[in-house]
Design a protein that fits this description.
The structure holds 2 protein chains of 2 kinds. By secondary structure, chain A is mainly β. Chain A is built from no helices and 11 strands. The chains are: A mainly beta, B mainly beta.
Chain lengths: 113, 113
């Protein structure tokens, strides 16, 4: 089985632009979460989606939005990019039962110049 | 904001030695998880310990949890050069869709051959 897949792997954008990051969860996983990891820090929770509905949102501005599709894949959108949005964006999927951790993708490295 | 704080921030040991990393957190939790990350890539789930458990083992890993002190420790026994990575604790807050994780800043472990 394929793991969590994210695309693209690397991306360079200019301040003010918009970006869309994509994630495909493990087959059968209905819960998808997004995390932002700034260099040298731990990941920070952005969004959680389950069955196409937003179930949790972290402390991020409205420039960040996401959605989940019927096949449980997900997109993270960031508008009006700032230099501080440069980070590794991680997607994770999980079967929503106790006892198991999340499976993370390899991430998308976003650089804003 | 980061819930968990790892200690030490960096650790350098010789191959064969044991490595101990500590994590403190602030609020009540459903579970605590440890993850490993190699060179800014995706996170790999290592072990999950529930709030009603005190100790858990998985291979060369031993995790303890003290909810009265809001702290956890990860012990890696007989370390190998391949254990070189960053290790993160993450506290889980459950809802119907799963856990939303709050990560600490991580411990960077270097195991010298």
């Amino acid at each position: 089985d394929a793991g969590v897949t994210q695309s693209p792997t690397h991306l360079i954008k200019t301040r003010g632009q918009q970006v869309t990051l994509r994630c495909s969860p493990i087959s059968g996983h209905k819960s998808v979460s997004w995390y932002q990891q700034v260099l040298g820090q731990g990941p920070q929770f952005i969004f959680q989606y389950y069955e196409k509905e937003e179930r949790g949102r972290g402390n991020f501005p409205d420039r960040f939005s996401a959605r989940q599709f019927p096949n449980y894949s997900s997109e993270l959108n960031v508008n009006a990019l700032l230099l501080g949005d440069s980070a590794l964006y991680l997607c994770a999927s999980r079967v929503p039962t106790e006892g198991d951790g999340y499976t993370f993708g390899s991430g998308t490295r976003l650089t804003v110049v | 904001s980061q819930q968990g704080e790892e200690d030490p921030q960096a650790l350098s040991i010789q191959e064969g030695e044991n490595a101990t990393m500590n994590c403190s957190y602030k609020t009540s939790i459903n579970n605590l998880q440890w993850y490993r990350q190699n060179s800014g890539r995706g996170l790999v789930h290592l072990i999950l310990i529930r709030s009603n458990e005190r100790e858990k083992h998985s291979g060369r890993l031993r995790v303890t949890l003290d909810t009265s002190k809001k702290s956890s420790s990860l012990l890696i026994t007989a370390s190998r050069a391949a254990d070189t990575a960053s290790y993160f604790c993450a506290t889980g807050r459950s809802n119907n869709a799963g856990n939303m994780l709050t990560f600490g800043g991580g411990t960077r472990l270097m195991v010298k051959p």
